Each structure stands twice: as structure tokens, then as C-alpha cells.
């Protein structure tokens, strides 16, 4: 997504594309998404663990450490930065395409 989205965007994606909520959601704004989701559909998300990805955790100074991926040994193998890595590749391709058009 090119712009900052409200928690409603990922919530709508999960509610419209998943028959059952995922067991874990790793997301840059998981703390706010967690609250938003539980206020709107608590039964659907009752067993979902919400954690902030490693790349964005450093900015979450007021959040509970329960949202920190580093605290969960079962999540150590997960590349939580894959979205940022793919976005970076897309931006490079987009920049190259813009240069080509000039």
C-alpha cells in the first residue's frame, strides 16, 4: 500500500478474505489494529496474536512489550521485514521506470 492506512484497511482484508482469523498477525501497527479488531469483531479475532514487525518496533515506545516479536522464540525464524524489502524493490523499479520516461 502506497499510503498510510487506517486499521480498517487490514481489518477489512482479514474479514472479507479469510473464513477464519489467522493465528498470528505481524503488522507495523499491530497494537492499534489489535484494539480496533477487538472492538469491531471480538469473536473473529479472539484467538489471534498481534505483534509489531521488527522493522517498526523501535518506534513503538509506548506499546506493551507483548507486541514485540523478539520476545517470542517461536517467531525468531520469521522474516517480518519481507514487506519492507519488497516495497524497496518496487520503489527502485518505479524510480527506474520514471527515469526511462524522461
UniProtKB/TrEMBL annotation:
**Basic and acidic residues bias locations:** 86-102
Q: Where is this region: Disordered?
A: 82-102
PANTHER family membership? EXPRESSED PROTEIN (PTHR34305), SWIM-TYPE DOMAIN-CONTAINING PROTEIN (PTHR34305:SF1)
Name by which UniProt lists this protein: Uncharacterized protein
Amino acid at each position: 500500500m502506497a499510503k498510510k492506512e487506517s486499521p480498517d484497511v487490514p481489518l477489512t482484508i482479514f474479514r472479507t478474505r479469510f473464513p477464519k482469523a489467522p493465528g498470528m498477525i505481524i503488522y507495523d501497527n499491530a497494537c492499534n489494529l489489535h484494539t480496533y479488531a477487538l472492538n469491531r469483531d471480538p469473536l473473529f479475532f479472539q484467538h489471534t496474536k498481534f505483534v509489531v514487525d521488527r522493522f517498526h518496533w523501535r518506534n513503538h515506545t509506548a506499546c506493551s512489550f507483548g507486541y514485540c516479536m523478539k520476545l517470542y522464540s517461536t517467531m525468531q525464524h520469521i522474516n517480518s521485514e519481507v514487506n519492507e524489502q519488497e516495497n524497496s524493490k518496487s520503489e527502485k523499479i518505479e524510480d527506474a521506470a520514471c527515469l526511462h520516461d524522461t
